[in-house]
């Protein structure tokens, strides 16, 4: 395990375990991706996106590219949260409009799934090994997976959704059947993250991108409970590996998520006010929450927003990040500008 | 003005001004629409959606249909928030994927707009008159418009958006120019709502459907400030007409919205926890927040969710509603079931 084997913990690991660093460590969600010309050139070497993710030499290079250019404190494994449903037996492809899966439903969904395809994820572990070997010891490598609820939304909706009516209708009509689906996902996710950790990631992030579409009681049942259980299993198996949870859009339910799931750090989205983030920071490290459009715009709005976040949250454990992923239209020089803003002390 | 001229205030008007009623008055966002077969038949009588909205006999009939079938306490004017950009000079049509406008941007956007087309909204006032005349005095008629920020998102994005990068980039790069756009929208919206009120609506709702995509400082500037100003103008001109604000997705910023905008009631979305809603209720009437998918599912999940909302919020001023619009796939009999659940005292 990366950080554990190195002499010094990384800057990322230090704040994830509660230290305060100025300037804060930083990385960006989707820091590897289409806004980088070297990524677009690399992407052309695979016939499709799934193949790209499952070719360790390509995925590792994509993982490393942004760190090489901008010197973030962490790389994040290049992969996709939907490799897990694919490993469970769903067809997966990526079109112009995003991912497409053959949606499952409550009538025959579970029967079509099986954990026997979990070995299809092994190339990802090789990506971790190659990436870890290429990164300096000071650079953390973050593994990740989708949280069970968010993965289930894609599995039941067949892709992105506006109303989440298929997945919610399943969960509301048939809670035991839906719980069985989430358990299947959680088991596969535990195995997947265990594989990533064994291969060398220093921390893991659980992306719950659609946590913010559930009412309170269902949030408790389908976001908090499965996350808590998954975090507990990870902590039992890998007590020193920090877990970052990102319940995007959870609004007023963020506090409960932090209080009850056991995550070491919480990703905060763009709409979370900084004083609310500071309250979360009294319990855990916070990670966020620059608006990706501010990074796209650059200049004075970027400098002002970075300063506001650092002033509000720099007194506690903070991983500087975006509140959502880098937009493909972002000029790379704005990320370089952000790196400059983040290497200077706040003064 | 409807309610003011009638002998008794409507049940809706009573709770909007702070009374507590059991059972609470109710209506549903998008209660007129595609889930109703009589709406689909009516819709076929116009060549396109804009023509439908601007034909008073059709739009008034759509307004009344759900009340005739289910007996809600309020009808809501059938119209569309994008009639305002159209009145300002943008082309508007509705395709399979939603609305399409010829997007404006900061370079020449304002020059292409003018308030001279505001008279194109007059058929909507006639829809109000026809609807008001057809409804019983006990049934409130709600007028509405988009809040300036949300209307601006459609104007700058050219339709629905996932990342809001065009509208945000404009706002972040050129705050004075963007403020001028919002002022133009706000002026047209004030005129539009004044026309609706003069024609007989009893209350108005400001839909800020995309309030939840802005960081704190920008939320203050582009959601709260223009809403507060618009509410103030409405209150000066029509002191007895309640204003409902719906800053969907505002999460932890809901409290500030309620404290600072001056709205009489606040629409709460599905993810707002009921204890947080109760805190809002100490200041204003709350309206919401049943998950539309629960209505789609019906049965015991529906009964349980309705009971939970009434138990948590029935002790204060409450308008029972959804947290988002009725889904087109909703069986009408589930709305009838909801009506039965809402006419019984909670016991």
Q: Cα distance, first to last residue of chain A? A: 36 Å
Instruction: State the share of residues found in helices of chain A, binned by percent.
Output: 40-55%
| Rg from Cα of chain A | 19 Å
CATH topology (level 3) name of chain A: TIM Barrel
Query: What is the name of the CATH class of chain A?
Result: Alpha Beta
Shape of chain A: globular
Seen as an oligomer or otherwise, the chain set is homodimer
Instruction: Please name the two chains that share the biggest interface, counting residues whose Cβ lies under 8 Å from a Cβ on the partner chain.
Output: A-B, 43 and 43 residues
Output the number of helix runs of chain A: 16
**Average pLDDT reading of chain A:** 95
- The proportion of residues in beta strands of chain A is 5-15%
Question: How many distinct beta strands of chain A?
Answer: 9
Low-confidence stretches of chain A: none
Q: Within the largest sheet of chain A, what's the order of strands?
A: 1-4-5-6-7-8-9
What CATH architecture label of chain A applies? Alpha-Beta Barrel
Tally of separate domains of chain A: 1
Task: Summarize the main sheet of chain A.
Answer: 7 strands, parallel
Structural class based on helices, strands and sheet pairing of chain A: alpha/beta
Q: Element order, helices and strands of chain A?
A: HHHHHEHEEHEHHHEHEHEHEHHEH
Characterization of the model:
The structure is a homodimer of 347-residue chains. By secondary structure, chain A is an alpha/beta fold. Chain A has one domain (32-286): TIM Barrel (Alpha-Beta Barrel), CATH 3.20.20.210. Helix content of chain A is 49%, strand content 12%. Chain A has helices at residues 2-5, 11-16, 37-43, 49-53, 56-70, 83-87, 122-134, 148-157, 165-173, 175-199, 216-237, 254-261, 274-281, 292-297, 299-313, 332-343, and strands at residues 74-76, 92-95, 98-101, 140-146, 203-207, 243-246, 265-267, 285-290, 318-322. In chain A, α11 (216-237) links the parallel β5 and β6 (243-246).
């Amino acid at each position: 395990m990366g950080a554990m084997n190195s002499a010094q913990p990384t800057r990322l690991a230090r704040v994830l375990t509660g230290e305060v660093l100025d300037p804060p460590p930083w990385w960006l969600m989707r820091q590897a991706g289409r806004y980088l010309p070297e990524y677009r050139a690399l992407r052309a070497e695979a016939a499709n996106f799934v193949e790209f993710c499952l070719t360790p030499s390509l995925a590792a290079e994509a993982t490393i590219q942004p760190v090489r250019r901008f010197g973030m404190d962490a790389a994040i494994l290049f992969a996709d949260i939907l490799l897990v449903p694919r490993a469970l037996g769903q067809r997966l492809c990526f079109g112009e409009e995003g991912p497409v899966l053959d949606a499952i439903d409550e009538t025959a969904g579970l029967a079509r799934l099986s954990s026997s395809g979990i070995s299809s994820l092994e190339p990802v572990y090789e990506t971790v090994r190659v990436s870890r070997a290429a990164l300096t010891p000071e650079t953390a490598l973050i593994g990740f997976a989708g949280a069970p609820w968010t993965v289930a939304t894609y599995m039941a909706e067949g892709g992105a959704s506006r109303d989440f009516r298929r997945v919610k209708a399943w969960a509301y009509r048939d809670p035991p059947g839906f719980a069985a689906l989430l358990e299947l996902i959680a088991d596969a996710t535990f195995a997947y993250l265990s594989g990533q950790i064994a291969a060398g990631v220093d921390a893991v992030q659980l992306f719950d991108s659609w946590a913010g579409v559930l009412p309170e009681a269902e949030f408790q049942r389908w976001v908090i409970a499965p996350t808590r259980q998954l975090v507990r299993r990870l902590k039992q198996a890998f007590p020193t590996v920090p877990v970052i949870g990102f319940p995007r859009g959870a609004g007023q339910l963020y506090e409960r998520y932090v209080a009850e799931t056991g995550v070491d750090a919480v990703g905060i989205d763009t709409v979370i006010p900084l004083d609310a983030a500071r309250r979360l920071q009294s319990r855990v490290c916070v990670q966020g929450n620059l608006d990706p459009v501010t990074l796209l715009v650059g200049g004075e709005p970027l400098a002002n927003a970075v300063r506001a976040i650092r002033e509000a949250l720099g007194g506690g454990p903070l991983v500087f990040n975006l509140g959502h992923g880098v937009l493909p239209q972002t000029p790379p020089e704005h990320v370089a500008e952000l790196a400059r803003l983040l290497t200077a002390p706040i003064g």
